[in-house]
Amino acid sequence: MASASIFSDDHDHNNKTLVFLFLFGVTLSICFLNSSASAEIQCLRHPVKADRSLSFLVVGDWGRRGLYNQSELALQMGIVGEKLDIDFVISTGDNFYEDGLTDVNDPAFYESFSNIYTAPSLHKQWYNVLGNHDYRGDVLAQLSPDLREKDKRWLCLRSFILHAEFVEFFFVDTTPFVDAYFTHPKDHTYDWRGVLPRENYLSKLSKDLNSALRHSTAKWKIVVGHHTIKSAGHHGITQELVSQLLPILEENNVDFYVNGHDHCLEHIIDSKNQIQFLTSGGGSKAWRGDIKWWNPEELKLYYDGQGFMSMEITEEVANFSYYDISGNILHKWSLSKKLDSSV
């Protein structure tokens, strides 16, 4: 059993990650959150465009070997990705169904990822988090640099920061927060290597995330996780995240929480704190008609079909859109921020 670590499971993985990112053109650095050497978080840096803009796609819950319209959706992602000249793709987890990868040589990696997202516009960096289905397989396989040798687009870490000048993304490993996976796993086996003891893992993750958000000077703060915090979908509200993660987001003025888990597209604006909750979990199998009541003043979109999301962001404006399987725009929204008058 590996010792608890939020970001990697051995030094070989870290060393291979450094080499890969250097070759791919993505910069990795270590951000020290305090004087303790144990409190370090991996930070990736992605350049913005010459016009100081950034664009990307978000898709979640997708890895089904092209089934459940995954291939058709990938086609539309490629078209939209080319139109927007995207810089990268974010995956909100549940990357491989039903039970993650068996090992680094599992053909599902090609059958659900490399052979599906073939459009030139999608041959950009993919930043991935783990979902609960990924934890049912070999977690270390998805974290392994060996997968990046098979397809250089792939980058999956437990939790990390992506810095892009005026915006910072905080990717959070949400699966270990959920009690039921530990207390009532049913017939499933979860790979908790690198997580146990759980209490220490969650305490350190929460502390490091809070510190990183507090010290961030980015104009925009976006937190990405697999599990829902607020959702009218099948899984609905994740109480463990409401009690343990949401206060951190509120305290640090996070703009967006982006997630998957519920197999739908969804946009909720919290009336209390104005955080935008963006669900993009329609990458393959969707759950038709599976919706709970939600305050219509907060619920701006609920779509129970396959789809994905795009975001175009500058220092002043963040525009995001949701697309269905035919590439039709289902919903679009814009959020503006004033530039500092001293700039």
UniProtKB/TrEMBL annotation:
Fe cation 2 binds at residues 94, 132, 226, 261. One of its GO terms (molecular function) is metal ion binding. It comes from the Eukaryota. Fe cation 1 binds at residues 61, 94, 97, 263. Binds 2 iron ions per subunit. GO terms for cellular component: extracellular region. Residues 55-264 form the Calcineurin-like phosphoesterase domain. InterPro entries: Acid_PPase, Calcineurin-like_PHP, Metallo-depent_PP-like, Metallophosphoesterase_PAP. It catalyses: a phosphate monoester + H2O = an alcohol + phosphate. Belongs to the metallophosphoesterase superfamily. Purple acid phosphatase family. This is Purple acid phosphatase. It comes from Trema orientale. The lineage of its organism: Eukaryota, Viridiplantae, Streptophyta, Embryophyta, Tracheophyta.
